[in-house]
Specification:
By secondary structure, the protein is of the alpha+beta class. It folds into two domains: about 160 residues; about 110 residues, no CATH class. Helix content is about 35%, strand content about 25%. It contains ten helices and 13 strands. The strands form five sheets. Strands 1, 2, 3, 4 and 6 form a five-stranded mixed beta sheet that branches. Helix 1 runs parallel beside helix 4, helix 6 packs across helix 8 and helix 6 crosses helix 10.
Length: about 300
Amino acid sequence: MFAKYLEKVAGDIFGQENVEAKVDGSNYMVTLVIWFKEINIENSAEQQHLIRDLFVRVRFNLLGNKVCNLSGIDINRATYTEKELSESYMFSHSNASSRSNSFAGGLCFGDTQLKQFIMNMMKDNAVISVYPLLSALNEYFRWESLEGTPYKRIDSVINGRSSLGSRARKPLVSQISLNRLIVECENIEYSYTNNHVRYENKTKNRIRLTNKCIEEIDGKLTSAFPAACFYRNNGVSYSNINSMTEYYKEGQEVIVFKGEIIKRKIIKDEANQPQGLRIHCEILDEVVNGLEERIYNKILTKKLEENYG
């Protein structure tokens, strides 16, 4: 009875073809599955990213034939782009990884009305709150709250910010002359306090490197750290893609939805990357740190000359 009610309410919100409710008598549970075949997630930085084949399970405990309370909400995905795999991205407000093939909870709801719905429904009879809960979930999966500090950011998928690790970036930068790296520094701003030089945050985005410099960085990075295939945001290094798809269990069953076996799939990224090469953000951090040190040394030298020259 409750399963049919769930399907009716969820179908009105998500479409009947995208929902299924099942009763598990052995576990005294009703599970509603919602299939977002394609959903755009956006944030306040005006970025957006298309998420494919997101499955959301909303589970309710049963007491006899009556609903007792909300048991939990977890998610999984069937389709990933190569870049989502490289960035370990499943959904912004989940600590789950795209490299796993199982349903996972760990969703962060922040200090929101949705969180209150969930907390109340876990304590009390959940029937009366089903519609507002599902309506709120429909909005939740479409928005990345940058102010709420997401576990993962769509920016990492858009701009390729997978961590390189210090064993790659520090030796790399030390091999390259900063004099040849920096080509254009527009309106650089920095502060000097307590014998420390610090660039203003916005400065980092104003540093531009030539393609030749970035190609040199790419070459050194590849030789120093071959496993870092995703070191810049103009796409994936396809040299290792076959082993990657095999390692991340492409073709493995994710869920059975309305009798259909949904399997894990990995697809190529769309050709929507920015024109030109862009240095990895962690490499850029090291470049900025090097510039700060150079400026500090110049200031220190100037002070010594003024005092003792």
